[in-house]
Write a structure and sequence with these properties.
Strand order of the largest sheet: 5-4-13-11-12-10-8-9
Strand content: 15-25%
Number of domains: 2
Largest sheet: 8 strands, mixed
Number of helices: 15
Radius of gyration: 23 Å
Helix content: 25-40%
Number of strands: 13
């Protein structure tokens, strides 16, 4: 056995033994003595730090429900392992060269199934044509993906085809005459691409969603005459509050904070007057008030809870089959329908300020008849925000095929 493997095995046994003792202790969600010790051990890559401090640290307040995730992730970090397989399909986590995490499919091919992509592009064109008959324009917006185009950030031997799928899909839309916007070049040419995404989650940060809204506001004006006041999109008219070490994303939850750390989370608060009503179509909630109390959910960031909380849902509250954001300060604005996946959570509250009413439909949870619903809503624009990866297209167009 190699020396590294020997040390890893020893550490895992020590950490497991400590964990058995810790299961009898309480955990309050904060950083206790053992976690501090583990972080120091991982940072300094020195097992002696753990060996010398373990005795006093075993009485710390680590979460007994997630202790072994933490310990295992810490050991994997010490050993330099970049792929952590999960028993649940699709939850295997890889560490990119940027240090960020990403879910990976161990059997993924480098190139997409072209026939399947063509089918989905044709389904999109059919939707656009049906809307055109109603006099409603359609726009597809390709959200950026965490792995940048042309990069080599995955561990050796792993492949992903998300960007290749998006390229092929957008080529199909172009060929079929469907209007679209590809947001990837926007983020590639502004700042460090990886910084637009959470380290421990696949989603873009609120900063990225705000930036996308700024760009889309200009595009919607040029393409469809949908105007958004520059006052709204000016960053100087927004206050930002950063909650440090507050968010552990879906990928981070699989491996713990000791493997790749945690993320900060940014709260955007408008300095101008806002008044909105946000209603879920299933009747589960109706929220009325300013931006940060209606289309945002402050209760989701009331306290830090890495494993049980999801601060990402501060914006929009989560993924709902159908919901509506009514902007009382813009009654003469456009009525827009946003067909969305989870990336839409962070964008929708900002986009609602450009509308009189923004209706969001998440096809993963929507159970109605899409075209009948769109006819009833009588929108001025229907747009789709998706990451055009294989999974995203499957979710979207499995639904469209039934229409």
């Amino acid at each position: 056995m190699k020396r590294r493997d020997t040390i890893t095995a020893l550490l895992f046994l020590l950490l497991t033994a400590g964990g058995l003792l810790l299961t009898a202790t309480a955990f309050l969600g904060g950083e206790g003595k053992l976690e501090t010790l583990l972080k120091t051990t991982v940072r300094e890559r020195d097992p002696m730090v753990l060996l010398e401090g373990a005795e006093s640290a075993v009485n710390s307040d680590l979460d007994r429900d997630h202790l072994f995730i933490q310990l295992y992730g810490g050991v994997q970090n010490l050993s330099g392992r970049r792929v952590i397989q999960d028993m649940v399909a699709g939850n295997t986590v890889a560490k990119l060269t940027t240090g960020a995490l990403n879910f990976v499919n161990l059997g993924a091919a480098a190139q997409p199934d072209q026939a399947a992509v063509d089918t989905r592009a044709e389904a999109t064109a059919e939707l656009a044509e049906a809307l055109e008959e109603l006099g409603v324009p359609y726009l597809y917006v390709a959200a950026p993906q965490k792995i940048q185009r042309g990069g080599d950030t995955l561990p050796k031997g792993l492949e992903e085809n998300g960007n290749a799928t998006c390229d092929a899909y957008l080529e199909g839309l172009d060929r079929l005459g469907v209007d679209y916007i590809d947001l990837r070049p926007l983020f590639e040419s502004n700042g460090i691409y990886s910084n637009w995404f959470f380290y421990t989650d696949h989603h873009w940060k609120p900063e990225a969603a705000f930036f996308a809204w700024q760009y889309l506001a200009g595009e919607l004006d040029v393409r469809y005459g949908i105007e958004t006041s520059a006052v709204l999109t000016d960053p100087n008219n927004w206050q930002t509050t950063v909650l440090e070490d507050f968010f552990l994303g879906s990928q981070g939850k699989r491996v713990g904070t000791l493997y790749a750390g945690t993320d900060d989370f940014t709260i955007y608060t408008p300095k101008f007057d806002t008044s909105l009503t946000y209603t879920n179509s299933d009747g589960s909630f109706t929220r009325t008030g300013p931006f940060n109390q209606s289309v945002c959910f402050p209760e989701r960031v009331a306290q830090r809870d890495w494993f049980n909380g999801n601060p990402y849902t501060y914006y929009s509250g989560g993924d709902y089959g159908m919901a509506a954001m009514v902007n009382h300060n813009n009654p003469d604005g456009p009525r827009v329908v946003l067909l969305r996946e989870s990336f839409g959570c962070a964008l929708a509250p900002f986009l609602s300020l450009s509308c009189s009413e923004l209706t969001t439909i998440d096809l993963r949870h929507f159970t109605g008849d899409l075209m009948e619903t769109l006819e009833e809503l009588e929108p001025d624009l229907v747009l789709t925000l998706y990451t055009a990866s294989t999974a995203g297209l499957d979710n979207m167009f499995e639904f469209f095929k039934t229409e």
